[in-house]
Fold this protein.
Amino acid sequence: MIPGHLCFSALSAEEIEDRLEEKGEFSPTFGFVFSSVALDIKKIADILASAHVPVFGASTAGEILGVDGEDPVRERSAVCCFLDIDPSLFSIRLFDRGERSCFEFGEAIGVEGTKLFREPAFIIAISGLSNDGDAIVSGIRSAVPPGTPVVGGLAGDDSFFRETCVFSQEGCSTNGAVALIFDRSRVTVQNVVTCGWTGIGADMMVTKSEGNVLHSINGRPATEVFGEYLNVPDDQLVEVAVTFPLQIRRPDGTVVLRTGLSADFQAGSITFAGTVPQGASVRFSSCFGAETIEESVRDIGKCHDLHPAADMVLAFSCMARHWAAGSLVNDELKAALDLWRRPLIGFFSYGEIGHTSQGTCDFHNESLSLAIITFSPDVP
């Protein structure tokens, strides 16, 4: 049975404060809050801390909320969903990366989760434009039992690519992560990741890279290759490249996409949201609008066939899906809303975390990752 909940969108921190004051007898034990950087996020975090509501929060590149028959996609707002469930089912922790490598940072998050629960499940949001999401996910995987659910995304900043943040009742971090860790013995977290991007152009070779920093392709500076292929000036390269990510073919046969977040034109390098392995075969890829969304709707339907029960659905969708598909992106989110008929909340991100069809947790770009959450029948 779905727990008590309060879901709404707001256009200011003050509006969130007013809605919480008007909640009547409803007493939330935690909440999801995803906010545009157009709002005062620090003030939002302070308001929630004063209200003594643990919160899983992130800055966004667009917001998602499915309520009252409205289109789920929102812009320059905050979306909130507060729940009333047993606090022993979960823990929300804010982590700052500090000087640790991305792998070590992810490992620390995984270790903390296994200390809290014998069988944890993780919902995670990560801030920091230079962080390697792939390495962080690998670090988490190294510290948790195989098959542990890990779902989430990289925080956004309305596509400015300046600074992102995550927050909880403990404060805000612009270089860290917020993790909602569930007790999997009483909370079920299922996941589907869908993409639909198609490879285009010739295969190329990554000739020099360091983690998520790509230096050269086919022996030429990365910025030069991207600029020539996309036919755009330097000041538009990152913005346009977001919708033409690199498709990486791994040695094990799997394919992932990687999106560039910033460029260093003096060095000729591009920093991506996840690892771009040296020696990898890559090519550009593109979205084909309606076809891409139709494929994702089919994938969501298959997931519902396998997991028809849910108490709520979380959505982490790449902001490039919104850019490339336009209003059609509502269709895949409405599909999830119509199938499960439960509260749907999420945000457009700079990278997505979820499980491949083989069941392995991975870091994705240009994808939609849905977390299907079900609480045990005895959960109030």
